[in-house]
Amino acid sequence: MTSSSSSPVAEGTPSHHGLGAWAAGVLVFGSSAAVLVVEIVALRLLAPYLGLTLETSTLVIGIALTAIACGSWLGGRVADRLNPRRLIGPALGVSGAVVALTPAVLRTTAEWAPAMLLLIASLTILLPGALLAAVTPIVTKLRLTSLAETGTVVGRLSGVGTVGAIVGTVLTGFVLVARLPVSGILIGLGTLLVVGAALVEWRTRRSSSTLVPALALVVVAGGLATTVAPGGCDAETRYHCARVVADPDRRSGRTLVLDGLRHSYVDVDDPTVLEFAYVRAIASVVDAAFPAGEPLAAHHLGGGGLTFPRYLAATRPGTRSLVSEIDSGVVRINHDRLGLTSQAGIGVRTEDGRRGLRRLDAGSRDLVVGDAFGGVSVPWHLTTVEAMKDVRRVLDEDGLYLANLIDHGSLAFARAEVATLSKTFEHVAVVGEPADLGLDQTSAPKGGNLVALASKRPIDLRAAQAALDARQTGWKITTGDDLTSWIGDAQLLTDDFAPVDQLLQPYSPPNGH
Length: 513
Fold this sequence. Notes:
This protein is 52% helix and 14% strand. It is of the alpha/beta class. Strand 1 and strand 2 form a beta hairpin. The longest helix is centred in the first third of the chain and has 30 residues, at 21-50. It is elongated, with a radius of gyration of 28 Å.
């Protein structure tokens, strides 16, 4: 052999495929950031249909990682066989077109062909994710002009890509989602990617290419389709797709719909109107547990439409209700669309419920109401023994804790939560449909809402049952041996182990709670 110079990238030999360091960095940074933006926003886009659960998050993360793995592998292989310069523009442009179409496609599929939703969702993450992930090995190929710099080039671009992914994650989670609708984020990202493709095509002097104009038209079509696609929101908050629906049978009635589920019903003229059975059950127990008209110091974990705090303010003048509501957008809707005024005696903190509990003084509350949900999922950290100890701490000796529980099927989550309450409080009971509590052997359990009550002192359950009957709920109360039998061998939920998403069985049709 005379020399090793026959290698196309031999040491010191420049490649005709070379790419400037700054251009390479921008391409790798931007494409890596875009993959994470798509991943995070896809979670928000799917939440109204699949719920924001551990399983949904795991699914989306798994699909995104699959896209990155496939794109990196295939991008490297293709770059070794074709001219890498001719690959970057199409990769950016096609991914941008798919991203811009995603909101309209997913929402239309969810409404018209729900059985196909998982497949279509997977494709809308896989295709752009793989194309964007392919940019890094393609750019790396272009930058490898010398074998002596292989480690430096690969390491630098890998680092730049990682920084891009971090920036995409932080920017989306802390800035974009808080200020823009998810459809706007994706259409904007798609536009940027197509613009990037146009710049790359121009730099490679492929001005005659018809690819970019065609993709630009696709992006415009995606934006137009989003405006007419089903499943739109009145407002996209930090956590929810929110709508306020007027009651056709009651002029002043409003239903707050979050992620497709009915979360609250509010009569803006008469807060004593309680539409949902579980709210009437909570009101019945509170009315039986405390003297009529007596003002209370109450804390509410989860706000929604603030139906029950409004009820307390109307029926117990002087009541001080403090609400921990994590979604500031929902709070704004209460003021802008649901008639909440500053004179209602209701204070709202935009905070996580568990952190809100820790801020309260011991023995400072007569009543704590747990009614926090994220779509079809339950914030697991509000269900554990440790969380219940915090609830017990803030209650005074005569205090009462009430929790709205939603479950179906075997009611495994509801049983586990009541078992957890029984570990923490001396007196526990559950209110619900007789069949769901095993009190009606002639009917099969249907699942739905149940209300758990827990306290340090006995509650007059006969008075509570009378109040339930007066409100025509049809619900019954179980406690004592019947409750122990109903709980069975349900596991305790702790901060160390609380598989709430696995225990809870949601009901698919959007009937809400």
